[in-house]
Amino acid sequence: MYGVFNKAVLVFVVFATSACADASNNETTRSSSEWRTPQPENLLLMQLDSGTVVIELAPGMAPQNAANIRILANEGYYDGLAIIRSQDNYVVQWGDPDAGSEDEKSTGSAAAGVAAEFYRERDGLAVTVIESTDAYAPEVGFVSGFPIAMDERRAWLTHCYGMVGVSRGMEADSGNGSSLYVVTGHAPRHLDKNITLVGRVLSGIELLSVLPRGTGPLGFYESEQQLTPIRRVQMGDKSSDAAGLQVMRTDSQPFLDYVEARTHRKNEWFVDATGKIELCNLHPPVRKVDL
User: pTM for the full model?
Assistant: First the structure.
């Protein structure tokens, strides 16, 4: 019985992911104009003992917070800090384990507090709209690879898997990027428009999602031994570690083909393909190319 169960699970995983894999793999042979290379100054590279996590910032949606994070990274603030929280089916958070104490690390010339950027005006955004019955917004789609939701006048980033946010306290403007988190579980969309989202993990998310769960409230670690140290955080224009990393353009035909494949599962394994899609079931493909 155990062997049959595992075989069934394997078959499900293979077929459930085939549409996504086919869309991504087939497009690697097409014109590079259908892929974009992220601007190095918008890439945040977090080096752990287990590898490097690459995050693309979204200054078009959260310019002040992105700018403050750049200052923190360029001045070495994150170097030597730690991953302080891993909450099951929710988020992984990093920052200063000594925050709030006399041993708290200085944030240097970075702002101590940054105005919340929960949303921005919709005007001026080139949106690839996705047909989806969303529970949290009238419309959803993508801008430059980032998942967003919209009403008639506002647009905001959404808490999909891999999205990175600025931790804050009770006050809306209390975050400054000194502590960040990434969604590692089911999309907590109820947090949209309540926390500033500032980017998306492009590679290395598996280094964070597999971390041991914290034993304290909300998944915080309770001892120094449980912490995962951060060796170094650099911006992409200060490092070559992300060289060759490309993201499928979400305003391209290959991306629309990818959305179609994910929405209408035509593989014979599916008994009842829904013909529908949720925003957070779409993850713009990322590839590494030789330079």
Answer: 0.89
